[in-house]
Amino acid sequence: xxxxxxxxxxxxxxxxxxxxxxxxxxxxxxxxxxxxxxxxxxxxxxxxxxxxxxxxxxxxxxxxxxxxxx
Length: 70
Hints:
The chain has helices at residues 2-10, 18-40, 47-69. It is mainly α. The termini are far apart.
C-alpha cells in the first residue's frame, strides 16, 4: 500500500488517504508500515502523520501487552 501510494504521489495520481494508511497499520500492519516508511522514505517527513503513527503504535503495543498479560 505504501509503495502504491508513493508511486501515485510521484505520478500525481489518486492516493491512498492517510486515515486508510493508519487504519491498515492499526489493524496489524505496524511492522510493515514502519518498514515501508523507512525503506521507501514515504510519509517520514510529515509530522502529523508521524505523530499519529507513533500514537497508534503505542496504543497497539499497549493492547498487545494487555492481552498477553491476561
